[in-house]
Amino acid sequence: MPASPSTDTAILWFRQDLRLADNPALRAACRDADRLIPVYILETDTDPWAPGAASRWWLHHSLSALDAALRERGSRLHLLQGEAGACLQQLVAASGTTAVYWNRRLEPAAIARDRDIKAELKQRGIACHSFNAALLVEPWDHLNQQGRPYRVFTPFWRSLQPRLDSLAPQRTPSQLPGLPRRRGHSLQLDALGLLPEHDWDAGLHDEWQPGETGAHNRLRTLLERRLQRYPEARDRPDADGTSRLSPHLHFGELGPRQVLARIQQHAGARRSPGLVGAGEQYLRQLAWREFAHHLLYHFPETAERPLDSRFKAFPWRNDPDSLRAWQRGSTGIPLVDAGMRELWHTGWMHNRVRMVVASFLTKNLGIHWLEGARWFWDTLVDADLANNTLGWQWTAGCGADAAPFFRIFNPVTQAQKFDPDGSYLRRWLPELAALPDKWLARPWEAPAAVLAEAGVEPGATYPRPLVDLKASRERALAGWDAIRTHNRLTM
């Protein structure tokens, strides 16, 4: 028989909010319930953007860290796998729960799923309480003067700035409610099958510390070592000048309001104009993340289709061989290959290099941006649907804030400007390490004697370029002209 209803037991449904601090759903549940079941459900639905391999690796370790934090406070994480609504119904029946608390997710599939789950639970008399833990402000609370969503970042950021001082994070509850005696069966973490069957994750272990503690360690490093030089260093893949907070923010091990508060406190305490300016530069990047989530909420079709409808007619090329070479870091273009190898080894890529490799795929190779978005989705530890969508559409030229011209990044000049001594290229392309700086970013132009002396054999030790950069640029521009002409003729 199912347990009789009880008014003192609640479920806290963790999703992308794997932290105890600044967790509104947790605080509300702790306030209202005498007994609490923290649960994570690995969903087995048909969402086309289910977590990729790198994200699953991160999730395993983040769940382990969250469970350890809960156990320190006399609780533990309940693990389930299956369709989320059915799992919650089973847990409600087993425990006699009368309320479920969660923090909102705003991806299109999650919105639809949450709406159905809330309706089903309410039909059974179960109270549902949802909160904002992922964003500074939610999309329906931040519109332009016409009551419409922003499509350009600068006015979005300008209107957000006056609101920042009022966005304070919530404290960690001093005490967690205990667990009820009856709560049904919980899976072991390993039973979720999140870790890879083959050992390809050594680089991820070396690079990352998933979990709330790892997130705060990263934030501390940003404040103490990187923030002052962030405006100059953030574009340099050869310098460790970025925050690398993106996976922690995606999994909710750290909330944006926490980052905002710490940066404001740090800059204010030091009273350094340079530090204040650097802090604003970083907060601008945090707002870009916010902008991405607002766009996906208001334009959910953009996860699969271009925001700029003209690009439905763009002449994309179907070239599986070139796509595989790009994925493997074997294009013959050093900055592109270095970035793709960094991605495979660490689950992350510097943002400047992300733009370059995306531009090369979409502009020089002419391959659809969705092919790149799907590869990033599977290989990035910070794979986030909103950020991934905005980034790829921005670089392809079909999204929000795209340039009025057809932007094409030159991987040679980008390497020379942002990796001037070649340390980034040499780290990820050791087969080119002996080349002089002059030829490192463009080995196909190096004299044969220079290549021989450096031990570089084109086509053998390092690939020849897949395409000619100038000719492929001209082809991309011709494609852009074609869709503009098509649009004028069909108006």
From TrEMBL:
Region (Disordered): 230-250
Record domain Photolyase/cryptochrome alpha/beta: where: 8-136
UniProt KW Lyase keyword: yes
PROSITE patterns recorded: DNA_PHOTOLYASES_1_1 (PS00394), PHR_CRY_ALPHA_BETA (PS51645)
Cofactor(s) the protein needs: (6R)-5,10-methylene-5,6,7,8-tetrahydrofolate; FAD
Pfam family, one: DNA_photolyase
Record protein name field: Deoxyribodipyrimidine photo-lyase
Organism: Thiohalobacter thiocyanaticus
